[in-house]
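We store chain and fold; thus.
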Amino acid sequence: MDSPRYRGVNRSLGQLLLSAVLVPLHGWPDEPGLIFTERRADMRRHAGEISFPGGRKDDADADLAATALREAQEEIGLDPAGVELCGALPPAATFVTGYRIHPFVGLIADPAELDLVPNPDEVETSWPSRSRRYETATKCAAWSDAAFPFTPPPTRSTAT
């Protein structure tokens, strides 16, 4: 269990490495969707995983929200200035790799309007996903609200 792959196995919850992901939400509220990434298959950690853009907190990051924005820019070319952070979900721990992941929800423009380019050093591909079944998602969210409390972001005003 001394290999880097299992470095976090014996960490207690207080010793988990801090990381953050951005949950890029587009099309809110009419046709909500998310952007996912697929990690490269030859990566040392999280190879081939489907995920949100994110990673370990750097010392230079002001906070975990800054980590999420920096990682999204590094991984898919998402300009932090084009992200409206609107909330955070409860952190989740990974016991095998030893991370505490802090997810931040950010509203973004339609991905077709953005110049998103996956970083070939980390990401195999990225893609937007739309949910036309928002009512079903809302029912699921209500069911899991105790485990994942989250208030949806406000509707953006289209008035000028």
